[in-house]
Amino acid sequence: MTGSPLGATDAPAESRRSGTFETLSLRGVGRTFGKTAALKGLDLEIRRGEFIALLGPSGCGKSTALNCLAGLLPLTSGSIWQDETRIDVLPPERRGFGMVFQNYALFPHMSVRKNVAFGLTMRRLPKAETARRTEEAIRLVRLEEHAHKLPGQLSGGQQQRVAIARAIVLEPSLVLMDEPLSNLDAKLRLEMRTEIRRLHQSLGLTTVYVTHDQEEALSLADRLVILRAGTVQQIGTPEELHNRPVNQHVADFMGYRNLIRLTAGERTDDGIRVTGEGLDLVGTHLDDLTPGAAVVAAVRPEDVRLFEPGTTGDNRFPAIVEVVEYQGRELAVEARTESGLRWHLRTSHRLAPGDAVVLGVAVERLLVFRDDTAEAPKNVSVASERESV
Ligand code: ATP
């Protein structure tokens, strides 16, 4: 990829964009629908060039946040600022943002070329410039050979490329994407993911991307915003969220598949003791926990270690392998402890159902959170390690 900005001229890409900014600030942004608070006091600073993913379960307020940013939904509280200018009072067309939706929203009777050119035509740009920018956008999304076709003659992935070209041809200061890959099959999703990241980087875009797919968010974004029931749970880089989720809900979203309800014991030199379900483990905690508190211990499958049967030691416990799934080089394994707890782990060892094993977790890899599931709203699923036994 050349890295040349769209419709390259001598001017840097940023200076030709509508409403370029250094920082876009969401301050206490809220939106209610009747009695439903879809989004509560969202504070977020987006820096130019960043790729931000809004991540969370269905109904957590991701699309609401995006639509507030786009100007499609008026705020019920808070404000949005582009540097020193307040923009939440502006209609969508005056914000200069590009949008890409999951359903593509292409004009079915127009060719790819006309779909991409549409926004420029509406802005009454000179014909030659419209043509040049349109061809450049089509080239960037690699649709040169399909430019004359109608959307109905394209695959889902190609249609999504048209939608992306249509957004970037306007050289927007911010691109908003709402689950743009959710209608595509697994292979295309991966391809388009790379494509989106490539375009973001080569065009120097600023992107806000809504998804409920953790892997997609982690692989694309510079920073992630984890939402739950309209409230921000944590904002951070993929690495920060991956290594240090602040609560069980973020952990759940970050792939900590083993979420085990236990009881806090006393502090130890290196962490806190947690017991229950026949287990006596030591983990790492961020929350202030008193002995007897209900806690959730969170462990990622790749952090569960495997030992020979009969091995003893701290933070180790026996289990029997129940389910083995082949996943390339590694196996995804489910093993059950004596008390009936199911543990998820990944290993390159060839295991088979019925094998006796000893599982272990390092203290720093076992994160202990205060259990706040009792406070969880009904529409939020909290993963449980304990499936029906
Ligand atoms: P999904 O991943 O399913 O699209 P989401 O995280 O994008 O979900 P939103 O669409 O932002 O969630 O919805 C947040 C909450 O606001 C939900 O409880 C939803 O039912 C409610 N909501 C959204 N739009 C409206 C509306 N127009 N009228 C009433 N309630 C709404």
TrEMBL record:
GO molecular function: ABC-type transporter activity; ATP binding; ATP hydrolysis activity
Alphabetical list of Pfam families matching this protein: ABC_tran, TOBE_2
Transmembrane region(s): none
Keywords, ordered alphabetically: ATP-binding, Nucleotide-binding, Transport
Entry-linked SUPFAM superfamilies: MOP-like, P-loop containing nucleoside triphosphate hydrolases
Matches recorded under InterPro entries: AAA+_ATPase (IPR003593), ABC_SmlMolc_Importer (IPR050093), ABC_transporter-like_ATP-bd (IPR003439), ABC_transporter-like_CS (IPR017871), Mo/tungstate-bd_C_term_dom (IPR008995), NA-bd_OB-fold (IPR012340), P-loop_NTPase (IPR027417), Transp-assoc_OB_typ2 (IPR013611)
Cellular component terms per the entry's GO annotation: ATP-binding cassette (ABC) transporter complex
Domain (ABC transporter): residue spans on this chain: 24-254
PANTHER family (UniProt xref): SPERMIDINE/PUTRESCINE IMPORT ATP-BINDING PROTEIN POTA (PTHR42781), SPERMIDINE_PUTRESCINE IMPORT ATP-BINDING PROTEIN POTA (PTHR42781:SF4)
Protein name: ABC-type spermidine/putrescine transport system, ATPase component
Lineage start: Bacteria, Bacillati, Actinomycetota, Actinomycetes, Pseudonocardiales
